[in-house]
């Protein structure tokens, strides 16, 4: 039945042989080009692990210390490499521990395939040991999921899983496989999936819409681009840059879009959103044309929708039809892959420069620099700031590092001040805001880009949510650089308490352990810095190291992140202090 | 934007778990499903969900977008009542003696264009198809006599405009 609804592409290996379902899963992974996966064994997935043991020269399975870590590592791997991340877990608690990572990958459109073991088919619904309805549980947080109960289903479903995870707007897919299906033997052959009849991953570009968009751009006096991760996922970085340069349009980015264009590009005017830059936020409400590319108008980007860009015409380049007119009405919607649609539009765009308009951004930047940025990255007060640590990382790594951040103040500061030269350099939990994301994601990011410097910048709160993954870094001797910005608080929540809850610091003060000793317990070289004069050398030593390295920086305890658009306020009401 | 009645029609593959996936979309937005019907459609192997909601057009558009995005959904539409021909069915189970003792019941059956589908020693069953208000009216008329059991189906509907699902599917196979 499935076969008639899918288009498939036969792989070279046509020889049919009888193998177990468990071995078939390995062959499916290999056929999809998987060489690395993250997971944790257990009863219901043991047959697959037994096969992983036999295929360890071809498939590198990384044992994370918690299944959540496996998902975030797979996400980090996917985000930095553009490939599908793979995570594996057993049934019951193993499967439920994947949920946070699935939700994170869902909202941040990360291609990931999760494979879970399940109790044997005859026990389904009997409340067997470690049985849980992971299909029911994971439905709202997966792009697609499926329970395999017969070995014969494995090749088709695995092919479909990989196709769905990576095509169109990417997302996580979960395949649950009962134990009997892992043990049973069948004649294996594999065909890659190339289409599913009920699924249109990429809408066909509409030339009329593209022409309408080009007209609006050519006529605009004060156009502004806001791009998102869609540019990175669609590999449209060159097309975006060409549009920005040809039409001379100031371009800002969402947190997920960071690094698609050089930070230092003259027309890159910074980040939009709650803690974004002053200029692009304020000027969103002054532009006459807002060109949204591969972004979804998240509430952290728009603030109050009633007062968001009401004066502007809006063009929305988007792959996911359901995002168009969801939050912000688009005068022109250009559906499709942004690489293709921008590419088709470029010849229609007239060369232009909007110098006066661009100057408005520069003026706002000068204000922000004086009020906020200078104090953040060249502080004169005694306590260390998060901003100066990011600046030192930029310098030591020559702006070439992959920055992996967790969630909170350090994340906002990291994304504000990190300098990027290369796309896919900013790995963070944007939509879900998952504390504990960074350390495991950095493991995946490093393994997905071994030639790149990977620096995880984490707060003291989030670090302790997945701190056990230090075990993976030690076991693999993986040269990940870990920077914990320790303010002994849950800093962002504390900031909100200070500003909006009358300084009632409910459960945001942390008595922390000796992080250096913990890292040393995992045999990771570790250092602590608490004085400005030691910072530069310590960061340089860390970056120069070819081994895993941990650096704790004791930063000012009660610093706030500014600018800030308070929840529910307009982008025009962005506060500098 | 004011709330009104919408009928959502979803053409999909017939797969386990899809109902859960679709109902979750309503759940996440705190929108109540007023009526739900799942059946086969005019196309072999394609299922049709007919879902009735009372909400604003903004929300119904959002929901239909999210429903259509599901991998196994072929196409989803929404229509107002004016744009569809729709019906519900109901069954009334009533004690058999009333059929003879209360002559008025026979008139109610006739006037409401309903049928007696079975008569047993203890009870008889009336079937009524029509719009919800018609069924409600008949329910009100029968209530004083005592109704042993009552059940009403979800709305089923066809649209006045075409829903070109076959063409969509043909396109898929032509490209193959």
Automatic annotation (TrEMBL), chain A:
| GO MF annotations, alphabetized | acetolactate synthase activity
Q: What is its EC number?
A: 2.2.1.6
On the tree of life, the source organism's domain of life is Bacteria
Q: Which Gene3D superfamilies match?
A: 3.40.50.970, TPP-binding domain
Q: Which residues form the Thiamine pyrophosphate enzyme N-terminal TPP-binding domain?
A: 20-135
Q: Could you say which enzyme class this protein belongs to?
A: transferase
- Name the reaction it catalyses: 2 pyruvate + H(+) = (2S)-2-acetolactate + CO2
Its pathway is: Amino-acid biosynthesis; L-isoleucine biosynthesis; L-isoleucine from 2-oxobutanoate: step 1/4; Amino-acid biosynthesis; L-valine biosynthesis; L-valine from pyruvate: step 1/4
| UniProt cross-references to InterPro entries, sorted A to Z | Acetolactate_synth_lsu, AHAS_TPP, DHS-like_NAD/FAD-binding_dom, THDP-binding, Thiamin_PyroP_enz_cen_dom, Thiamin_PyroP_enz_TPP-bd_dom, TPP_enz, TPP_enzyme_TPP-bd
Cofactors (names): Mg(2+); thiamine diphosphate
Alphabetized UniProt keyword annotations = Amino-acid biosynthesis, Branched-chain amino acid biosynthesis, Magnesium, Metal-binding, Thiamine pyrophosphate, Transferase
Q: Which Pfam families match?
A: TPP_enzyme_C, TPP_enzyme_M, TPP_enzyme_N
Asked whether the keyword Methyltransferase is assigned, the reply is no
Co-factor binding comment: Binds 1 Mg(2+) ion per subunit.
Using the record's annotation, list all stretches that form the Thiamine pyrophosphate enzyme TPP-binding domain. 406-553
- List the PANTHER family hit by this protein, alphabetically: ACETOLACTATE SYNTHASE CATALYTIC SUBUNIT, MITOCHONDRIAL, THIAMINE PYROPHOSPHATE ENZYMES
Q: What family is this?
A: Belongs to the TPP enzyme family.
- What is the designated name of this protein? Acetolactate synthase
Q: Source organism lineage?
A: Bacteria, Pseudomonadati, Bacteroidota, Flavobacteriia, Flavobacteriales
TrEMBL record, chain B:
Pathway the protein takes part in: Amino-acid biosynthesis; L-isoleucine biosynthesis; L-isoleucine from 2-oxobutanoate: step 1/4; Amino-acid biosynthesis; L-valine biosynthesis; L-valine from pyruvate: step 1/4
Stored CDD domains: ACT_AHAS (cd04878)
Does the keyword field hold Amino-acid biosynthesis?
yes
Is RNA-binding one of the keywords UniProt gives this record?
A: no
Catalysed reactions, as listed in the record: 2 pyruvate + H(+) = (2S)-2-acetolactate + CO2
Q: Which residues form a coiled coil?
A: none
**EC primary class:** transferase
Which stretches make up the ACT domain? 7-87
- UniProt keyword terms in alphabetical order: Amino-acid biosynthesis, Branched-chain amino acid biosynthesis, Transferase
**Tree of life domain:** Bacteria
Q: What is its EC number?
A: 2.2.1.6
Q: Which InterPro entries match?
A: Acetalactate_synth_ssu, Acetolactate_synth/TF_NikR_C, Acetolactate_synth_ssu_C, ACT-like_dom_sf, ACT_dom, AHAS_ACT, AHAS_small-like_ACT
Record-linked Pfam families: ACT_AHAS_ss, ALS_ss_C
Listed GO molecular functions? Answer: acetolactate synthase activity
User: Where is the chain membrane-spanning?
Assistant: none
Subunit-level organization: Dimer of large and small chains.
Q: What does this protein do?
A: Catalyzes the conversion of 2 pyruvate molecules into acetolactate in the first common step of the biosynthetic pathway of the branched-amino acids such as leucine, isoleucine, and valine.
The UniProt entry, under NCBIfam families, shows: acolac_sm (TIGR00119)
- Family listed: Belongs to the acetolactate synthase small subunit family.
PANTHER family documented for this protein: ACETOLACTATE SYNTHASE SMALL SUBUNIT, ACETOLACTATE SYNTHASE SMALL SUBUNIT 1, CHLOROPLASTIC
What is the name listed in the Swiss-Prot or TrEMBL entry for this protein? Acetolactate synthase small subunit
Q: Which organism is it from?
A: Euzebyella saccharophila
Q: Which taxonomic lineage does the organism of this UniProt entry have? A: Bacteria, Pseudomonadati, Bacteroidota, Flavobacteriia, Flavobacteriales
Originating gene = ilvN
């Amino acid at each position: 039945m499935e076969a008639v609804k899918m288009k498939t592409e036969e792989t070279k290996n046509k020889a049919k042989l009888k193998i177990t379902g468990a071995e078939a899963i390995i062959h499916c992974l290999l056929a999809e080009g998987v060489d690395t996966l993250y997971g944790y064994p257990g009863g219901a997935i043991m047959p697959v692990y037994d096969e992983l043991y036999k295929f360890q020269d071809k498939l590198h399975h990384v044992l994370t210390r918690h299944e959540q870590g496996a998902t975030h590592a797979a996400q980090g791997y996917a985000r930095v490499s553009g490939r599908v991340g793979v995570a594996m877990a057993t049934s019951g608690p193993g499967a439920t521990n994947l949920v946070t990572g699935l939700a994170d990958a869902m909202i941040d459109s990360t291609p990931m395939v999760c494979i879970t073991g399940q109790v044997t088919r005859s026990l389904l619904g009997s409340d067997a040991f470690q049985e849980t309805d992971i299909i029911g549980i994971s439905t709202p947080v997966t792009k697609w999921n499926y329970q395999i109960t017969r070995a014969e289903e494995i090749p088709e479903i695995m092919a479909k899983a990989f196709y769905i995870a990576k095509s169109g707007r990417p997302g996580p897919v979960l395949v649950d496989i009962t134990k009997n299906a892992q043990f049973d033997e069948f004649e294996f052959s594999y065909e890659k999936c190339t289409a599913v009849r009920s699924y249109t991953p990429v809408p066909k570009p509409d030339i009329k819409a593209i022409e309408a968009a080009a007209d609006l751009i050519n006529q605009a006096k004060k156009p502004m681009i806001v791009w998102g991760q869609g540019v990175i996922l669609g590999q449209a970085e060159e097309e975006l840059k060409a549009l920005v340069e040809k039409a001379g349009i100031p371009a800002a980015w969402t947190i997920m879009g960071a690094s698609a264009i050089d930070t230092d590009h003259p027309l890159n005017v910074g980040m939009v959103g709650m803690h974004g830059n002053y200029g692009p936020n304020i000027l969103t409400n002054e532009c006459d044309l807002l060109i949204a590319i591969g972004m979804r108008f998240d509430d952290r980007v728009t603030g109050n929708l009633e007062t968001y860009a009401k004066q502007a015409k809006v063009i929305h380049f988007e792959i996911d039809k359901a995002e168009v007119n969801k939050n912000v009405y688009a005068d022109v919607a250009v559906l499709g892959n942004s690489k293709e649609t921008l590419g088709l539009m470029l010849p229609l765009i007239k060369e232009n420069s909007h110098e006066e308009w661009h100057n408005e951004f520069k003026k706002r930047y000068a204000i922000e620099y004086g009020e906020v940025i200078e104090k953040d990255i060249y502080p004169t007060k005694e306590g260390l700031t998060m901003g100066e640590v990011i600046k030192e990382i930029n310098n030591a790594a020559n702006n070439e590092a992959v920055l992996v951040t967790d969630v909170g103040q350090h994340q906002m500061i990291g994304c504000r001040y990190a300098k990027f030269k290369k796309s896919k350099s900013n790995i963070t939990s944007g939509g879900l805001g998952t504390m504990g994301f960074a350390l495991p994601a950095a493991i995946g990011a490093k393994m997905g880009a071994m030639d790149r410097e990977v620096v995880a910048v984490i707060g003291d709160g989030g670090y302790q949510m997945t701190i056990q993954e230090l075990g993976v870094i030690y076991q693999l001797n993986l040269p990940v650089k870990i920077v914990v910005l320790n303010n002994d608080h849950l800093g962002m929540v504390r900031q909100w308490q200070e500003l909006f809850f009358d300084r009632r610091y409910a459960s945001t003060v942390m008595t922390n352990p000796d992080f250096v000793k913990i890292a040393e317990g995992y045999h990771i070289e570790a250092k602590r810095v608490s004085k400005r004069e030691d910072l530069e050398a310590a960061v340089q030593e860390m970056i120069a190291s070819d081994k895993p390295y941990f650096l704790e920086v004791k930063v000012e305890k009660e610093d706030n992140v500014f600018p800030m658009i308070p929840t529910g306020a307009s982008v025009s009401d962005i506060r500098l202090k | 934007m004011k709330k009104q009645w919408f009928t959502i029609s979803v053409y999909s593959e017939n797969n386990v778990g899809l109902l859960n996936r679709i109902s979750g979309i309503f759940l996440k937005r705190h929108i109540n499903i007023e009526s739900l019907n799942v059946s086969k459609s005019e196309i072999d192997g394609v299922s049709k969900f007919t879902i009735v909601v009372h909400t604003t057009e903004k929300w119904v558009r959002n929901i239909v977008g999210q429903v259509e995005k599901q991998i196994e959904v072929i196409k989803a539409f929404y229509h107002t009542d004016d744009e569809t021909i729709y019906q519900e069915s109901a069954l009334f189970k009533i004690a058999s003696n009333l059929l003879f003792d209360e002559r008025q019941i026979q008139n109610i059956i006739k006037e409401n264009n309903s049928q007696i589908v079975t008569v047993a020693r203890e009870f008889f069953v009336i079937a009524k198809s029509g719009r919800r208000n018609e069924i409600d009216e008949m329910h009100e008329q029968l209530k004083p006599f005592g109704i042993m059991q009552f059940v009403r189906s979800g709305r089923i509907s066809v649209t006045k405009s075409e829903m070109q699902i076959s063409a969509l599917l043909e396109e898929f196979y032509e490209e193959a």
